[in-house]
Amino acid sequence: MSIGSALFGGGRKSSTARRAGSAMSKANRIRKGSQDVGNAEALRSQVAELEHALQTELAAMAEQWDSPREELEEVVIRASASNIYVPALGLLWRPYWQASDGFTEPAF
Q1: Where is this region: Disordered (predicted)?
Q2: Which residue of 20, 32, 83, 89 is surrounded by the most CB atoms within 10 Å?
């Protein structure tokens, strides 16, 4: 509440003061909205630049890794029965009992 309207208006805002306050509020909303639009446009341009840089880097990586640097040739290695050595062979037995109800329990 402004001082003038408090002194002359008996503590109530006049319709002119109310309209002026409303107009100032609208002006502030419009100003903030235009700033948001400017910020959004700047962000859009930054996103477009980043996407372009990403596509450029992806194309460079694809070119580097998609084309093989040297020719690969297939080499066949056949298994032979010679030179095979088994140092140890073992057997493990763990007995279980099967009960009449179908459940098993260890017998050790």
Answers
A1: 1-38
A2: 20
